[in-house]
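TASK: fixed-backbone design
INPUT:
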């Protein structure tokens, strides 16, 4: 952490890169559909062909680039790693700082619809007393924070980097929030910097039970908890393949994803279909197609499919260890798709707010930005 310089950053993708993408899309070779061409065997050819056609002929990267560049962006080196982040200061002088962390296969794009309401509630029909200064970093190895140059970027090391980032920005008191990988990193920030973190808010977790469950343990669960355990078991049975690949052979997978835009698109869309709510809906029926494509573009343009997989899953061994309770007040929002269980979350976290919701999927910031924004505001209302 010797170089504490913070440099302004602006996304400026060359036209040559966009032309190369278009050439690859034009020359793409699609596989023959498998019997039924349904989602049970992966992303259907018939559906992906339509989204790819829109990517090539309808999607406007320059529009997305302008939208991203509306927000102040910076880079800095922390622990030997380049870190890209958005830093949006609220016009409200008494705003509290809030660190937002995305997940996989997400990016800072997840939070675009929440930045205005969280940082400037006065202009979005909210209470100005609920304003936040926002710091939204890109995870190491992802997008403009990639690739990684060293091993060992587990959630604890990322949390230490985030605490250092907030120190460099001059924030002595701040909240943290995240989902997916961000939901694992955020409590760790509370553990490495408990004297600075006023509260931890996560969507989707923590709170996964130790699997497999003993019969006596299973019998003690409520119907809601039993449903979540059953869905965890279904995930381990039917969906675990991508984790097995990404956590053991991320480099081998990267050759396909970094070279083929359709491969990258399909790999990410498979998860958006499985994890959005309701599962039977198509991804672009739940989240607007251009937003989905902008998220994919941050992986494609930076060639970081491999390093994102490596950071997200190849470091998983450290995640299973028992965690010390930081004592930092923690709020949890569990949408319909997610499977966190409070009794297990309370073993490692000081839960002061737990909200179960019967709608929404894994990508809370993209699917239910108003719901997530409201829950964040209400949670931090008593912690300011």
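OUTPUT:
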């Amino acid at each position: 952490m010797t170089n504490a310089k913070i440099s302004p950053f602006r996304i400026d993708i060359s036209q040559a890169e966009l032309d190369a993408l278009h050439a690859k899309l034009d020359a793409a070779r699609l596989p023959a559909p498998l019997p039924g061409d349904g989602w049970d065997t992966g992303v259907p050819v018939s559906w992906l062909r339509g989204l790819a056609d829109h990517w090539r002929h309808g999607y406007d990267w320059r529009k997305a680039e302008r939208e991203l560049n509306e927000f102040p962006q910076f880079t800095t080196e922390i622990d030997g790693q380049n870190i890209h982040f958005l830093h949006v200061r609220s016009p409200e002088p008494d705003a509290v700082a809030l660190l937002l962390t995305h997940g996989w296969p997400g990016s800072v794009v997840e939070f675009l619809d929440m930045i205005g309401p969280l940082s400037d509630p006065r202009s979005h029909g909210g209470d100005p007393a609920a304003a936040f200064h926002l710091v939204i970093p890109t995870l190491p190895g992802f997008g403009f924070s990639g690739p990684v140059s060293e091993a060992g970027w587990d959630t604890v090391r990322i949390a230490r980097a985030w605490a250092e980032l907030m120190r460099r920005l001059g924030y002595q008191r701040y909240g943290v929030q995240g989902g997916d990988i961000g939901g694992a990193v955020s409590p760790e920030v509370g553990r490495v910097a408990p004297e600075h973190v006023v509260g931890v808010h996560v969507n989707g977790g923590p709170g996964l039970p130790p699997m497999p469950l003993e019969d006596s343990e299973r019998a003690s669960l409520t119907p809601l908890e039993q449903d979540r355990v059953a869905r965890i078991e279904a995930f381990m049975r039917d969906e675990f393949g991508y984790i097995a690949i990404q956590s053991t052979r991320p480099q081998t997978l990267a050759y396909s994803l970094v070279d083929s835009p359709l491969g990258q698109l399909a790999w990410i869309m498979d998860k958006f279909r499985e994890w959005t709510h309701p599962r039977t809906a198509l991804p672009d029926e739940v989240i607007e197609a251009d937003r989905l494509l902008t998220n994919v573009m941050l992986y494609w343009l930076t060639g970081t499919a491999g390093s994102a997989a490596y950071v997200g899953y190849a470091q998983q061994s450290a995640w299973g260890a028992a965690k010390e309770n930081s004592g930092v007040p923690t709020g949890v929002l569990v949408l319909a798709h997610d499977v966190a269980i409070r009794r297990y979350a309370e073993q490692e976290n000081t839960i002061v707010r737990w909200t179960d919701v019967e709608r929404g999927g894994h990508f809370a910031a993209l699917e239910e930005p108003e719901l997530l924004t409201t829950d964040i505001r209400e949670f931090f209302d008593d912690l300011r």
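COMMENT: The longest strand covers residues 81-88.
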